[in-house]
Every structure is written in C-alpha cells, then in structure tokens.
Amino acid sequence: MNPPPQTTRISTRSTVKKLCENPSASSKIPFRPRKIRKLTANFPVDNAIKSPQPSLTTIPKSLSTKSEIDLALNHLRTSDPLLATVISTHPPPKLSPCKSPFLSLSKSILFQQLATKAANSIYSRFISLCGNESNVLPNTVLSLTPQKLREIGVSARKASYLHDLCDKFSTGVLSGTSILTMDDETLFQMLTAVKGIGPWSVHMFMIFSLHRPDVLPVGDLGVRKGVQFLYGLKELPKPLQMEQICEKWRPYRSVGSWYMWRLVEAKTKGNGNAQSDEAEQNEGF
C-alpha cells in the first residue's frame, strides 16, 4: 500500500493532538473487553477455589497462523494510514509457540527488574535446579526452598512470588487449560491476583506467550514512545490517551503495539541504552 498524501498525515496528527490536549482521568482498566465477549461469572478472585470454566464461545482467538496475521495487517493498514507506513518498512511478526503457561509466568517473575544478561544467568541456574524446562512444574518449583532459590540469585521476594504462583496452580485457581480459555478481562483479573505479577507482566504474557490479538499495554514505555513518534506528539501519551488514540487498531492492538516497538527501535538505532521494555522479553513474536 502506498503512503497516504501528506495532507492526510497532517490531518491525522492534528486530530490526535487535539484529543490529547484535554484528557480525562486515567483509565482504571488497562484495556477494554470486547463488546461481543461477556464474562461467564462475577466472582471475588481472592475467594476463588477453582478457575472459572468459560463456555466454548468465550475462547479468544489467537495470532497463531499467518492468515490471522495477514488479517491483522490488512485491518491496520486500512484503519490507520500512518501505521501503514510503519508496516510497509518492517517484516510481519513471527510467532514462537508457548511451551507452557506456568513456565512462561515463572520466567516472567524471574526476569523482573533485571538486566537481560543477569536474568538469563539466573534463569539457566533455575532450569538446572528443576532438571529441564519441561520439568518446571508447580510441584517441582514448590519443592525448591527459598534458601535454594537464593543460592542461584533469586531474591527472597521473588521466591515468595514463585511459590504463590505454584499455590495458585496446585489448588486449581489457575491451570494451563483455564489460562488458555479465559477471556482477556478474566485472565487479567486472575493473573494480577498472583503476587508479583502486575499489569505490564500480564500484558506481555498475553501478547508474547498466548498471542492474544487485542492487547494494548498502555503502561509500556516502548509502546508509548512509538505512539508519540507516530503521531508527532510533544509528550508521552497517558493510559487513557493511548486507549483513545489506538482505538482504531481494535481488534488487533497487539500487532499495532508490536509495530510501535519496531518504530522505537528504528528511531533509536545505534543507541545501546534505548531499548523498549519488550526487548527484555524473549518469547512470542
């Protein structure tokens, strides 16, 4: 697709800037659930004994095939001419399979707030303790005492996070099957109830491990910078502004976000310190 005329670009940027001049209070929910999807039940997460069992109609689609990626790219090119120019200069996303939800979540906890090299070193020692990646299971990790975990560089706090995750799986609050079949909003609520797993970690897990198509990580610095670059904004957009600006990407905001990371990388090429949060993730696209 050829780039749109310059007048179209100016009009789009102008509209976005006007939108950002008078933002209302920040959104309390990091992303909106799709209108066609409803929760199967309302329940207090803290008191849940078993994961909710959604019906087949609530199982979310995933970016698991090239045809689905192609649909996403066609939608984004049509709905956002400025994003279309970014898509035309970068190859499409490539998917990597998720080995197991529990493994991915454990790895997310271990990598938090660490440089990539240090995190990889600790993760390698963690895998050795467990035996191999396929043996990273709730019962296995639960058998590792905080002292054993501290010996390989895992802090006491992260050890408690790992054990809380294990408890959630062991008691049936979470399971690999339920994680794969929960709708986005329920999954967000259930995972943020795990100690040490916050909104950003859940968004990265949903995008890179589960390949959910419509996740907008409004708190990710790289995505925010990308939106700022794309629309020529003077300041980083806030969460509610992000939702408003990126509404046109729905239902493929995950792919739009992926291109924001690529845009930031292109803009900051050669600056070794200018890495997006997503650069710390090594799963998914």
Automatic annotation (TrEMBL):
Residues 110-265 form the HhH-GPD domain. Keywords: DNA damage, DNA repair. GO terms for biological process: base-excision repair, AP site formation; DNA alkylation repair. CDD domains: ENDO3c. It holds the Pfam family HhH-GPD. Belongs to the alkylbase DNA glycosidase AlkA family. This is DNA-3-methyladenine glycosylase 1. It comes from Durio zibethinus (Durian).
